[in-house]
């Protein structure tokens, strides 16, 4: 004898409670449920949905963090541009003097030291303007 069971799930709608009208084909802890209300199936679907949402949220969060870090790095480097430009202008201004330096007199030595300082300042400005963690 093939016995038909009703789904054991009670459904509330518009303030009224009634039993699911579908046929209970899956048994769980002595009760029959339809495929929609079968507790292990409901739990598995919920876990899969939550895992998909968590994966999506984590990916979006990671993308926002990367974008924020890139924006901050760009802002940091942009703030260093005036220093870099000034250092390079000083280097260019002293470059002409360097071409004629022979270190024969005190003025040449002073210009050589001035050029070396400008070069070191330019190198330091360039190093600060490089992306953080980049090799120099």
Question: Can you put this structure into words, describing what you see?
Answer:
Helices cover 62% and strands 10% of the residues. It is built from three helices and four strands, in the order ββββααα. The chain has helices at 39-79, 81-99, 106-129, and strands at residues 10-13, 16-19, 26-28, 31-33. It has 136 residues and is mainly alpha-helical. The N and C termini lie far apart (84 Å). A hairpin with a 2-residue loop joins strand 3 (26-28) and strand 4 (31-33). Helix 2 packs antiparallel against helix 3. The chain has a two-stranded antiparallel sheet. Strands 3-4 form a two-stranded antiparallel sheet. The protein has a domain at 80-131.
In short:
By secondary structure, the protein is mainly α. It is built from three helices and four strands; from the N terminus they run ββββααα.
Percent helix, as a range, is: 55-70%
The share of residues in extended strands comes to 5-15%
The secondary-structure element order is EEEEHHH
Q: How big is the Rg? A: 37 Å
Tally of separate helices: 3
Largest sheet: 2 strands, antiparallel
Low-confidence stretches: none
Q: Mean of the pLDDT scores?
A: 80
Q: Could you give the distance between the termini?
A: 84 Å
* Helix-strand category: mainly alpha
Give the overall silhouette.
rod-shaped
Q: How many extended strands?
A: 4
Strand order, sheet with most strands: 1-2
């Amino acid at each position: 004898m093939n016995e038909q069971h009703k789904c054991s799930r009670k459904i509330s709608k518009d303030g009224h409670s009634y039993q699911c009208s579908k046929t209970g084909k899956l048994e769980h802890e002595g009760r029959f449920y339809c495929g929609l209300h079968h507790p292990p199936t409901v739990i598995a679907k919920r876990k899969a949905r939550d895992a998909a949402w968590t994966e999506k949220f984590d990916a979006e969060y990671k993308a926002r963090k990367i974008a924020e870090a890139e924006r901050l790095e760009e802002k940091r480097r942009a703030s260093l541009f005036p220093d870099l430009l000034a250092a390079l202008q000083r280097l260019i201004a002293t470059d002409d003097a360097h071409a004629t330096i022979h270190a024969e007199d005190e003025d040449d030595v002073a210009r050589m030291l001035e050029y070396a300082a400008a070069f070191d300042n330019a190198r330091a400005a360039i190093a600060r303007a490089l992306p953080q963690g980049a090799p120099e």
